[in-house]
Write the structure tokens for this entry.
Amino acid sequence: PIVRRQEAREQARAQEAQMQRCQPFDAVAVSTFEELDALKYWKDPRAFGRERQRYAKHIKPVIGARIIQDITPLDVVNLLHGRSGGLLGSGSLSKVRALLGRGFDYATRQGLIEESPLHSSKFRALMKGAPSSSEETQHMPALDPEDLPRFIRALCESIEKAEKSGRSSTGAKCLLFSILTNSRSSNARGAQWREIDPGGRVWVIPSERMKKRENGDHTVYLSSFAVALLKSLPQLPDSPYVFSCARGGALSDAVFGQCIKRLNRERTAVGGAPFVDRKQLDRRGMPREVTQHGIARATYKTWTQTALNERGAPFNVDAVELSLHHKRIGAGGLGGAYEREDFIKERREIAEAWAVFVFSGVEESLKQKILER
């Protein structure tokens, strides 16, 4: 009888331990958020809120109630590619994948699972055959270069209208600046006056603010148009940012999307066509609305492939790549040890030619209003 009672107690303890291990993904996600919040993983409270919203929208409805040990690599692939009501055609795939990874990594550390499904060989094999509509193979929606001057004209008209009505035009001007400088959203919104030398027409972005930190600081050679835009902006004494929000901090990461949506609403209200990427379709089969990243970088890159410099020759390919903070391609296949040229003259020439093209659809009077204080 003593042995049987001991066996019964051990069996009960084993069942209890098993029940504790069999947690739904929802419970694991809550614990993951709590741990990361305690570690100050998100420096911006708004980023923490966006992560929670992203989980509630994309992950919770699909696998939130599933026991974590029962979630397979196939379940994760189906979630990421929309077969379970997930992210097909969404621009959030990489962010949701990272969010899933943090949850599975937490479960692994706690001994709930032996291996994250994202790290398994089966997951990698399944991802190779995944649809091509994912963010990993789909570019950010961009304009065809020939459509860009019309977009810039609409953007300048929106800036003028906002200033006449007393509304802030800071977000729209920051969008214009990001296009002139081929900048990523975070770099343009986080630009600080101490990084910029308008007199030398140079903007040096520290490597820690760049996506590819290993490529070092990024030197942006400013066109005369970009310098004029900077000189038209007020410098707030209590804010280091070139484009400050009302509270003096950097602009929200949603500001560019809001600007573009406003432009499209204004155009469709008068019977005009919205600014969309006609080559990319959403899950409904409709052209996707353009993005700041797509215009500032993809449209620019496409333009450089056909545009000619003032001598009638194509632009230097390495200079174009360096202007995007990419590694140079290297002429003739030479190794990096021989590639020490920064192509400063060529990059300045490309920046000026790009700015002239950007404003080619804007009337001179409107251009002066936008670029003069």
